[in-house]
Amino acid sequence: MPANKNIFKDLFHTRKRFALLTIAVVVFILYQLDKRIRLDDDLIGEQVYFLLNKGYVKSEMMRGYGNLMLEVHQTIFHKLFVYWGALVCKLFGWSLYSLHASSLLFLLFFVFALYRFLRTQGALFFFTLIFILTCYNVLYFSNCFRPEMMLMTFGFLGYAFIDRYLSQGKNADLFFSALCSALAFSTHPHGVIYCVAGGMLLLLNRNFIAAVIFGATAGVVFFVLYFSDIIYWDQYGLFAYQLRNDPIINVHDHHWYTPVIKLFEEHIRIFFNEREIIITALLVTGIALSYKKLIRTQKNLLLYGLSCFVSLGALTYSKSPQYLLLYLPFTVLIIGHSWTIIEEGTIRYKKQIFRALMVAFAGIHLFFSGKKIVENCIRFREASLAAANHSVAGHIPAPHDSLSLLSYDSFIFDEIKNFRRIQTLTVYSFFTEQQYLPKKKLPELVAAARKDSIDYLVFNKSYIKYFEITAADLENVQHFKVQYQDDATLILSLQP
């Protein structure tokens, strides 16, 4: 690439941008040709199922977890996200595809919001859109029934409105920023970072009255959205009980200085693997090479993004990389502005360094996306998840509507409609580890199943491996017998 040429304009202000966007869209579509479940499709999808069928959220899959009585009524969940999923499933029917469509629709909403925000900056819009569509975490979580896409969209809208309020002073923009921030908080607890960032941006701009109005509005909207179902079903006591006793919420080593420690651990997230490292490298390098003009022209963006980063690090325990999506739009906008400034300059080495990092970003993310696309092509002719599970269910004697199962997670698609209840083996694997409890062997698992009046245990290959089930275990286990077994499935039936 010629050092004196403005590569940013050449790529994103000419017809080349359409070619790059086409490549990004094709990669995105091919990545989604996946018939398997993704993270939490089952657990949050079950909440939607019961909301549609019972009118409130409960969880048979998590029955017994932490003695929280989730099988009776679940008061703590991702409220607005589950309501949104229920609306989509009400229109198109409850299925894995409808649940995934819920997140995909919010990606479309985000693209529209991004276009409206950058409609006068075409090159930056195309760069940001192509970057985000190529980002591996977006590829995964945009077609996954988790709230990251919804959070990202509401958070970005919260920033867009408050940025316009600071430049134009319209009270409507202040209200809509507070509204979007509260909607994000009602979607997932991590959405609180947008309330913090919005309030901090107003305070740093010395708009103290606006900060109070922003906080009060966001607080009222959040309270109404989050607690309306608790008030309606008169479940104050159960809410307090679940809040006090949930092992995920109640971390024993919390102290007044914990947020400071957690903030200094935030590097775990941004350096989680090569995909996160290259984005972090682009951000840090871009700021370092263009900071004088960047600070002068993009002060609000930098402050809002920094507030999101600090509050996410300080207020959350999980360092999972998917939560980078919460401030990904601001990260990409900063990278885009930095690249623009660098390319408009005359210093050769700055351009070469940043271009090399952009090539590295494209290579790393397209490599991992390509691996997934190849896997999708190989598995394209496989039966759908619902069809595969229906085939497994065929090895269990009918009628099914009176039977209780302890099974692998994805079996609820769509067998939740056919069996009396389905509990997940995750309670005895991941969530057992999370509570620092000893790993169960097959005899202990069988004892727990008998206690919960389980009729059949259904294992897939990964759970057979996790519980280390051997032929000797199956010969010696009491009260259950092998109903069906092949290379991928094991079904045990309860004996009188």
Give an overview of the whole structure.
With 496 residues, the protein is mainly α. The protein has helices spanning 7-12, 16-31, 41-54, 79-92, 96-117, 122-134, 136-141, 148-168, 171-187, 192-204, 208-232, 236-245, 258-264, 267-270, 274-297, 299-315, 328-344, 348-378, 385-393, 412-415, 430-434, 442-451, 461-466, 471-476; strands spanning 404-407, 421-424, 456-460, 480-485, 489-494. The chain contains 24 helices and five strands. The longest helix is centred in the C-terminal third of the chain and has 31 residues, at 348-378.
In short:
This protein has 496 residues and is mainly alpha-helical. It is built from 24 helices and 5 strands. 64% of the residues lie in helices and 5% in strands.
Please write out the topology.
Blueprint: H1 7-12, H2 16-31, H3 41-54, H4 79-92, H5 96-117, H6 122-134, H7 136-141, H8 148-168, H9 171-187, H10 192-204, H11 208-232, H12 236-245, H13 258-264, H14 267-270, H15 274-297, H16 299-315, H17 328-344, H18 348-378, H19 385-393, E1 404-407, H20 412-415, E2 421-424, H21 430-434, H22 442-451, E3 456-460, H23 461-466, H24 471-476, E4 480-485, E5 489-494
Parallel strand pairs: 1-2, 1-3
Antiparallel strand pairs: 3-5, 4-5
